[in-house]
Amino acid sequence: MFNIVIFGKPGSGKGTQANFLKEKYNLYHISTGDLFRKNISNQTKLGIEAKSYLDNGDLVPDSVTIKMLENEVLSNKELNGYIFDGFPRTLNQAESLDDFLSSINLKINATIALDVNEDELITRLLDRGKTTNRSDDQDIEKIKNRFNEYNTKTSILINFYNKQDKFFSVDGKGSVENITSRLFGLVDSLI
Ligand code: B4P
Predict the structure, then answer these.
(1) For residue range 103-143, what is the model confidence (pLDDT) as tens digits?
(2) Edge-to-edge strands of the sheet including 167-171?
(3) Which of 25, 136, 178, 182 is deepest in the core (most CB within 10 A)?
């Protein structure tokens, strides 16, 4: 199996590119953001708990997120691997993911970051906010809070995966097609 973490700041295109990667390499795509939004729209207990965090652009507590991720992996085992989109986002999540995967004889093969500057990200997220009902995309202060969450809690994972020789960065600016080609080139060289 080949398991990928797709990594980057909010709006860097993780979800967009994960959709192409999953098709080409027959991977199961797990987006923690999408899982939370599905639970919120179905008004499940998990969704009710997560809603205020998403609305404010805060990270949902690890206690909730890690269990949800593990259940999703265990329920979907048939494909060539997993693409983890938006997970891990804290050191605790990254360590838990390594421990959990190792308990089922799997590991992360590569963490691939999409590198995009914050000005471009603000433009992308506000644009999406005009056409969807995502409240976290409609307010610049909430977007800045999401960057702050990334900078204080998530960016340390670059070092975590670098130490394991699993961290790769791809230029995330330009057309979606060009970025997809860069990602395919990188993954082909690693498989
Ligand atoms: P996510 O759903 O992961 O949202 P994201 O980081 O904003 O999006 P992504 O990077 O996937 O960007 P996308 O491709 O959509 O998280 C939302 C919230 O959920 C978090 O703030 C947090 O509260 C919670 N959460 C999720 N996971 C968690 C975890 N592990 N722990 C705790 N909390 C968690 O692209 C963005 C936009 O850019 C789109 O409109 C897209 O069309 C556009 N775009 C993409 N590529 C482009 C390109 N090349 N050029 C121009 N536009 C582009």
Answers:
(1) 999 999 999 999 999 999 999 999 999 999 888 999 999 99
(2) 28-31, 82-85, 4-7, 110-115, 167-171
(3) 136
Closest Cα to atom 5 of ligand 1: 10
Closest listed residue to residue 125, CA positions, set 3, 6, 14, 2: 14
d(CA 155, CA 150): 6
Q: Ligand 1 in contact with 11 (CB < 6 A)?
A: yes
Angstrom distance (rounded) from CA 66 to CA 87:
9
Query: Which amino acid is it at 24?
Result: K
9, 89 contact by CB (below 8 A) = no
Give the pLDDT confidence of 61-83 residue by residue, as tens digits: 999 999 999 999 999 987 899 99
Q: Is 47 in the pocket of ligand 1 (CB under 6 A)?
A: no
> Are residues 56 and 145 in contact, defined by beta-carbon separation less than 8 angstroms?
yes
Q: Is this model's pTM higher than 0.85 or not?
A: yes
